[in-house]
Amino acid sequence: MRINVRASTAASVLAAIFAISGCMAPVDGVTAGLTDEIGDAEICGDYEITLFAGQHMDAGTVMVNNDATNVYVTIETDNGWTLNAYHIYLGFGPVPMNRPGAPRPGHFPYSDEVPAGTTSVTVTIPLADFDGACEDELVFAVHAELQRQDGRTVQQETGWNDCDNDFRRGWGSYCTYEVCCEPDDPPDACVYPKWIWRDHVDWWGISSVDMGGHTYNTAEMMSLLWTPPWGDASIEVAHQVIGGELNLDAGALMDPGEAADFAAAVTWLNANVDADGELPYDIYSIHATFADGHALADSLRDYNEGRGSEPLCAWF
After folding, report:
1. 7 and 112 housed in the same domain
2. Both 15 and 160 in a single domain?
3. Statement: residue 247 has pLDDT above 70
4. Is the pTM of this model over 0.70?
């Protein structure tokens, strides 16, 4: 555990002098604690709640956040309150309690006294302490020993974070915190052939495709994928365009040549629409445009079956 605390040297000296004389040092204007010592790691979470003193007095805040390796619990006091000590529980639970259900801060694993006049402290807790990981839901409770001075009058109170989960006995509460995740690098892209898409419509991320000026819905795309080409270049091209659209939507990429062929296939379908405007267009080998369509279908088939710039996905 690493504790980051910065206390005012003057305040510490005054505290020692007044302690010898039997009085407490004034804390007006004393600021102690953290400026920006968490480091350069990517921080996420920023869960902030009120710190109450004596159940009803707003004494500051508790903030919890994390990076890839640590959880950071920051206690900041306000309204004249300063921190003398803290007791923190963080883990998978349960929070240490006695048999009747009252919390036992003395058994919290992260506890320490802090210099007089401290108004801010950040406790760094490694996730490895309890095998914590991304998206784990943790339980935490923060107990603070607080004081506030008005002239020669010193008020000392117990402080707790303000959470929804009250202890069965005594006062105080505990919270839950989900370890947040920085986005991982995207997985390596890959492609599925048309017959995998045909057999796994539940994997589809799109519900329609425009071909030849007609919008085909999911049922119509499925019908086309189940239609054998029987030498019709329009069906060959349509199969590969649908497969390409599904692969692109799933995150696959195309190199410039593949993208040009894909655009050319869409253009070819637009140019060969028949009278009813819907596939099939009956473009067989006797037609002048058959060879171009057949070649485009072959090029896109190589892409969709993992013989192009993207590998074939494992689906078993």
Report:
1. yes
2. yes
3. yes
4. no
